[in-house]
């Protein structure tokens, strides 16, 4: 199995996350192999570190209809066709950013969506980013539970699209990006199932999570959007 690069990481020496960053070879594999292997790893961005507990794989152009790369390269998904180990950040539903890590060699177009994790360093910063305070409470379990919350907790936005997680010298005004070895779960702790909320390729069992971990997000199947003002099927009126 691909291992670490041995290069000192963003939080090298920190007792919470003191391990070497993963090498580019780790990501130079099919996404459905990388995704379960990311569980238990530690994603670090500046002062915040998240132990990953849930991830979702997306495949190749023309093969995986749920992937952003299905129809080929576009300005939006260009990073996905770049080298492995880079961060692909996209904006969705007009309100959220989500983050992926690119897999396979340059030009292939595949990656892993980072769905959930446990904040193990920088909780104060993550809470502030989540808008905690002023009467709004955010539990530790929910701090990075779900792909949008995880992106907010780690401070990811449009400016971070394309950051290299495998370069110790990545310049970034808000902090270095790295994925550290962490402590992967045992094989018996990893579960797999259908991906969340996708309408195409929804039976593909490429969502992976650590069984029993409270930070894993709930599974939700795809719900077709109804026209504004249409009747609620339960008879409760309109949306």
Give a summary of the structure in a few sentences:
This protein has 239 residues and is of the alpha+beta class. The chain has four helices and eight strands.
Structure report:
The structure is a single chain. This protein is an alpha+beta fold and 239 residues long. It has a single domain (24-210), classed as Methylpurine-DNA glycosylase (MPG) (3-methyladenine DNA Glycosylase, Chain A), CATH 3.10.300.10. Helices cover 11% and strands 22% of the residues. The chain has helices at 24-27, 31-38, 123-129, 147-153; strands at 42-45, 48-58, 87-92, 96-103, 110-121, 177-180, 190-193, 207-210. The model is unreliable at 3-13 and 227-239 (pLDDT under 50).
Our count of domains comes out at 1
Number of strands: 8
Mean pLDDT over the residues: 83
The name of the CATH topology is 3-methyladenine DNA Glycosylase, Chain A
CATH A-level architecture = Roll
CATH-assigned homologous superfamily: Methylpurine-DNA glycosylase (MPG)
Distance between the termini: 49 Å
Broad structural category? alpha+beta
Name the shape in a single word: globular
Helix content: 10-25%
The major β-sheet equals: 8 strands, antiparallel
């Amino acid at each position: 199995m691909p291992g670490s690069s041995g290069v000192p990481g963003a939080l090298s020496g920190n007792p919470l996350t003191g391990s070497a960053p993963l090498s580019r070879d780790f990501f130079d594999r099919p996404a459905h192999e990388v995704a379960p292997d990311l569980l238990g790893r530690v994603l670090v961005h500046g002062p915040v570190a998240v132990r990953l507990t849930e991830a979702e794989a997306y495949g190749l152009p023309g093969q995986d209809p749920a992937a952003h790369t299905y129809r080929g390269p576009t300005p939006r998904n260009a990073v996905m066709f770049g080298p492995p180990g880079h961060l692909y950040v996209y904006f969705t539903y007009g309100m959220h950013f989500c983050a992926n890590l690119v897999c396979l060699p340059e030009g292939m177009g595949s990656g892993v969506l980072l769905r959930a994790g446990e904040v193990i360093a920088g909780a104060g910063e993550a809470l502030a980013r989540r808008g905690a305070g002023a009467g709004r409470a955010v539990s530790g379990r929910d701090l990075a539970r779900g792909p949008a919350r995880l992106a907010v907790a780690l401070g990811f936005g449009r400016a971070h699209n394309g950051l290299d997680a495998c370069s110790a010298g990545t310049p970034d005004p808000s902090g270095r990006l790295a994925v550290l070895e962490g402590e992967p779960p045992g094989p018996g702790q990893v579960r797999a199932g259908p991906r969340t909320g996708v309408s195409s390729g929804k039976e593909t069992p490429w969502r992976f999570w650590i069984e029993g971990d409270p930070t894993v997000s709930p599974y939700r199947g795809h719900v077709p959007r109804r026209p504004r003002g249409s009747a609620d099927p339960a008879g409760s009126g309109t949306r």
